[in-house]
Amino acid sequence: MVFQNPWWSDKSKIYEDETVRKVANSPYRIPPIRENILLLGPRQVGKTTFLKTTIMEVLESEANPKKALFFSCDSMRDMEDLIELIHEYRNLINPNNGYIFLDEITFVKDWNVGLLHLFNAGYFRDSIVYVTGSTSMYLMKETLPGRPLKKLVFYPLDFRTYFNVFFQNKINVDRINLFNLKESYEKAKDLLPYLQELNTALLRYVERGGFLATNLIDNPLELYSVYKDATLSDLAKLGRDERIFIDIIGEIIDSLGSRISENTIAKKTSIGSHNTVKSYLELGENLFTFRVFRKIENGHFNNKSFKKVYFIDPFIYRVMKMYTRGIGDISREELPRVVEGIVGEHLAREYGREVGYTFTKSGKEVDFVVRNVGVEVKYGSANYNDLRLSEGYILSLDEIGMKDNKVIMPISIFLYLISSERVFYEIF
Question: Nearest 5°: phi and psi at 10?
């Protein structure tokens, strides 16, 4: 415990922490949250860095450095270890109010039961508690009843935040209401003077993704082994088969932008069982590796139909391609499909479970649909007939226009306009 909290003896030690030093000159810093949170998100997205920079701010205002407890739970076995840790801290170090930071707790057996016990027993009274994890696998509605922790997801930066931070050119325009097409069109026209810079930023976003770390080094694939090894470690902790995971990831990469099914993947690989494939698709979602989009029919999801799967960030796509195919670069042929996935991910973050794909009565696929509004992605030229629904958006490389209830606008402008700049997204 003392080893992980060197600032207890000297507050200035926090500035020597490796994660703090890495972001000392970063153009992006997330302010602390003044409430108890369970923060989930992909590996290497910056959860630990957020904890450490929050500790730094706490120490700058607190006279007693022992009020801040940080503990990495990677080597913790079960809830008994967790309870013992907090019991010792309260009895030997700090019996009063404080700040508790428990990192990567979601692989600890019965972690939620242990946390609930600590809350109910008063160990966290008058304290701020931050808990992080890399999987939502065991996060159900019944987890931590009474909502002692707000449940949040920390995603890689969205495109608007990415542009504002790394291109240092925040555009004074509000986020659009996707369902107000006329207003969206007018705001898109206002962004036309920035189109060249936004398109440049989009290509860089494709190359580096929204991970802060990949944008602070020359080659983002320098972090390939770090992310890959962390993912394999998570698979091992969950008792999953790496070979099955590789097979499924490979099929997702090969079919990116196309519809796939559990049965198809099972038959094209040595997996055999569609139920096994289904469980690994759920695993990939819970580990924040990729997102599954389901078909919407008559306003409802058809969970038995074919699915479309995209990686939640271009950097993750590159890592997984390198892992399964030995090549991490994105080819010119792949680029439109990767961009399509970026659009889907941004829609899903903002509109959650309302987003899927659909087919028209004439059998034409629509890339994404939110309620009755369609979004068709064309990485190139576009025309109004590309969208086979009565209203929605056709996304092009550089064209803009509006006819009836259809809007054509550049992809980069659309991404900037729908992004909310939220750092954390609440789980309900």
Answer: -155, 110
- Please give the C-alpha separations between residue 63 and each of 8, 66, 128, in angstroms, as whole numbers: 11, 9, 16
Q: What would the two tokens of residue 223 be?
A: 């972090």
- At residue 328, the 3 state secondary structure works out as coil
Within 10 angstroms of residue 2's Cβ, the number of other Cβ atoms is 8
| CA-wise closest residue to 107 among 243, 239, 291 | 239
The predicted-structure confidence for 56-107, as pLDDT tens digits, reads as follows 999 999 889 999 999 999 889 999 999 999 999 999 998 889 999 999 998 8
Is the Cβ–Cβ distance between 408 and 382 less than 8 Å?
A: yes
Residue 140 confidence (pLDDT): 53
Q: Are 337 and 367 in contact (CB under 8 A)?
A: no
As a whole number of angstroms, the distance between CA 70 and CA 5 comes to 6
Q: Worst-scoring range by mean pLDDT, 235-239, 315-319, 406-410?
A: 235-239
| 309: CB partners within 8 A, 6+ apart | 252, 255, 256, 260, 281, 284, 290, 291, 292, 293
| Residue matched to tokens 């999987």 | 135
| Structural domains of the chain, ranges and CATH numbers in brackets | 6-154 (3.40.50.300), 159-426 (no CATH)
